Structures are given as structure tokens and as C-alpha cells.
């Protein structure tokens, strides 16, 4: 990711694409994960309530459900803090590019897991998904910040660094749209919103993993 057009003193197509692909594995998912549970809040709480009762014969009170939901929602940020710590160690040894790969792998596991939780009628899987999504987000945003600073020329460092915040806003808006009842905010279709989130992970991972192969066909990048 850091050859040819990347690392020059000009704003090249390769540099811009590298920045975009980097934030697809970081900032985008932060905005997405923060936003996606808001329009689907009632659906997801109903899913948790129903399956806790079915699996454990436990009927949660309204206050217990609110506490459980707040804990699950907040686990994203707990995971993000842990992910950022892990990524600092990975970057020290392997560099930010390998960090992007690692964060993409974690998110490729965690994001569809939320959808599978509905298929398996398992609230536990949804909790695990939320925590690991936080870890992936923390890893991705940390690696993204280091990589963007590393690859951008001094004259364009501000512009390139702003890609992270821009991607977060895009992820936030995109998730809000997917969560609407007219999209996937329905009782049976909400898992597809999480499946869709895994697509940018695949793109980011593939671009980082096979960058040299891609350069054969697109040498001007």
C-alpha cells in the first residue's frame, strides 16, 4: 500500500484509494456500529427478551431489559478500548498495514455473527458480536490513523487524515438508513443490515492482502 504513488509529494489516485480502503476497515464501522442499533432498538430488545425467556425460562422485567440492553450497547466501547490497545502492539511489530488486515479479519467474523444470532435464536451470539465488533473497530481506527499519517505527504496530511472522520459519518448515515422500517428495520430482515456491513471488511482486507497482485493490472495506482 505504500509504494509508487503512495508516499510521493503529490495527491495521487493511488494515495486517495489507499486512504479510502483504509477507512473502510476502521472509521466506517465505528459510525455504522454506533448508529445501527438506534433505529432497531425495539426490534433487538424484543429479540433478546423473547429468546432469553425461551432459552432460560427467565422473564426479564423492563428495568432488567434496559440494563441488559445498555450493557450490550456499551460493550462496543469496551471492546474498542481493548482493540486499540492490541493494535498498538501489532503496529509496533508489524506496522499499520498488517493492523488493517487484522482488524478486517475481526470485523469479518463479528459483523455477520450478529445476523447469525437471529438465525440461531441466540442472544449470546449477538452479545459476542457486539463485543468483537468493538474490538475490530478499535483496532481499525487505530491502524487507520497511523497509516493515513504515514502515507500522506505533508501538504495533504490534513485532507487525507479527514478521511477517517468522513468515513465515520458515512457509516453513521448508511446504518441509519438501513435500520429504517422501509429498509431492513423489520422483525425478520434486520440481520441483513449486519451482513451488508461485512462487505467493506472484505474489500478492505482484499485490497490490503492482494495489493501487489492488483498493481499488476492497475500499475498507475
CATH superfamily: MFS general substrate transporter like domains
- Secondary-structure class: mainly alpha
Bin the strand percentage: under 5%
Q: What Rg is obtained from the alpha carbons, in whole angstroms?
A: 19 Å
Number of domains: 1
Low-confidence stretches: 1-5, 216-221
| Largest sheet descriptor | none
- Succession of helices and strands: HHHHHHHHH
Q: Can you name the CATH architecture?
A: Up-down Bundle
Looking at CATH, which topology would you report?
Answer: Growth Hormone, Chain: A
Number of helices: 9
| Helix residue percentage | over 70%
General form? elongated
Mean pLDDT: 86
Organism: Angiostrongylus costaricensis
Keywords: Membrane, Transmembrane, Transmembrane helix
Protein name: MFS domain-containing protein
InterPro entries: GLUT, MFS_dom, MFS_sugar_transport-like, MFS_trans_sf, Sugar_transporter_CS
Fold and architecture overview:
This protein has a single domain, classed as Growth Hormone, Chain: A (Up-down Bundle). With 221 residues, the chain is mainly alpha-helical. It has helices spanning 13-24, 27-36, 41-56, 62-94, 96-119, 123-151, 157-178, 191-209, 211-217. The N and C termini lie close together (10 Å).
